[in-house]
């Protein structure tokens, strides 16, 4: 497969400068997940996924607890889950996932972000078909062949297992997310360098310096929007 998790690494590397924004987004996502089922990660799979992701971003316990307590308290605040698709400079592709309590506001802000930064909105399905929904889980301290053996013993399938820098990264179908984590935990591994349900591009594109700078501005503007939870794209932003 050869797919790298560069875009996830870029997001995680920049979190120190944007902790309040990231924590606020996690708070909203945790609240929504807790409201959609039982506010207990043991019985609510969606909540468990969000909490595992939050752990890798070091989201403080008080933010997690506050979001869950808000859901338990019967808050009537509701959010719609929306996905926007669009194009950046030179045909680059972008997917934007949002949670919003004002659909018109969010649509207007996302459209403006594209329009003012060299991009344009596409129709539903115009971009997503070029991405694969993927579980990405990374650990340290083991080699790829050891991880493969561990997962085989647990009867868990993976698309690919790659050694990338200091981590071993497992790429799998989204429904394998919990099974992979459980296999690791049963082997005594409880810390993950990455634990994401993401959209990985089937192919990446490289932009020239000017287009890349414009594209990075587009991504920054989209990620700064209050209602936007995730931004996925197919541009190689590594140096």
From TrEMBL:
Pfam families: TACO1_YebC_N (PF20772), Transcrip_reg (PF01709). It is found in: Cytoplasm. Coiled coil: none annotated. Keywords: Cytoplasm, DNA-binding, Transcription, Transcription regulation. One of its GO terms (molecular function) is DNA binding. Its main location: cytoplasm. Residues 3-74 form the TACO1/YebC-like N-terminal domain. Belongs to the TACO1 family. YeeN subfamily. This is Probable transcriptional regulatory protein P4T90_13570. It comes from Heyndrickxia acidicola. The lineage of its organism: Bacteria, Bacillati, Bacillota, Bacilli, Bacillales.
């Amino acid at each position: 497969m050869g797919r790298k998790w560069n875009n996830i690494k870029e997001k995680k590397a920049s979190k120190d400068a944007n902790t309040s924004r990231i924590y606020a987004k996690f708070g909203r996502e945790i609240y929504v997940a807790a409201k959609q089922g039982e506010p207990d990660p043991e019985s609510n799979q969606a909540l468990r996924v969000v909490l595992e992701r939050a752990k890798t971003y070091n989201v403080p316990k008080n933010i997690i607890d506050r979001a869950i307590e808000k859901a338990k308290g019967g808050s009537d605040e509701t959010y719609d889950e929306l996905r926007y698709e669009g194009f950046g400079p030179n045909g680059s592709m972008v997917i934007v996932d949002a949670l919003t309590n004002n659909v018109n506001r969010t649509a207007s802000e996302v459209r403006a972000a594209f329009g003012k930064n060299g991009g344009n909105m596409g129709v539903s399905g115009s971009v997503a078909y070029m991405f694969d929904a993927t579980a990405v889980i990374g650990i340290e301290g083991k080699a790829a062949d050891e991880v493969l053996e561990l997962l085989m013993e647990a009867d868990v399938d993976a698309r690919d297992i790659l050694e990338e820098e200091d981590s071993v990264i497992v790429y799998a179908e989204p429904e394998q997310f919990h099974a992979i984590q459980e296999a690791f935990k049963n082997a005594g591994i409880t810390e993950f360098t990455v634990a994401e349900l993401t959209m990985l591009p089937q192919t990446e594109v490289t932009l020239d310096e000017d287009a890349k700078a414009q594209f990075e501005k587009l991504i920054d503007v989209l990620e700064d929007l209050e209602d936007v939870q995730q931004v996925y794209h197919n541009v190689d932003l590594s140096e």
